[in-house]
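Q: Could you fold this chain for me?
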Amino acid sequence: MNAPSLGSEEVSYSDRISHLHDDLLLRILSFIPTSDAISTSLLSKRWKFLWKMMPTLDLDEDSCRNLGSLRFDEVCCSLLQSHEARVITSLNLKLMTHSNDIDRLLSNIQSILFMRSQSLLIVAALFL
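A: Sure. Below is the predicted structure, expressed as structure tokens.
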């Protein structure tokens, strides 16, 4: 396959980041919001399920507004149920409104983590 040329310069495409070890990729993904990390699953087959192994999850209600008819607590629970990491070291929730969904969300999170025999301190911040 010939590399495309741009004027007189030859352009080459190289995917160096996908050759990194999963541990390093997960560390990199831990610095971005979980919704952005999930978006990386579209990059290639190698990245498709990588976000599911992240030990840290940052869920922001504001960034989940464009997910159709699902409420924030439903999005969070769905993500946690499909999450496959052996251990979740950090779960950060950024809530934009105060509602009864918060109690349901925290209860559902506790149930999901209990089924995995995990213990986690949950800190939920309310931003108005």
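A (continued): Helices lie at 22-29, 34-39, 72-82, 101-115.
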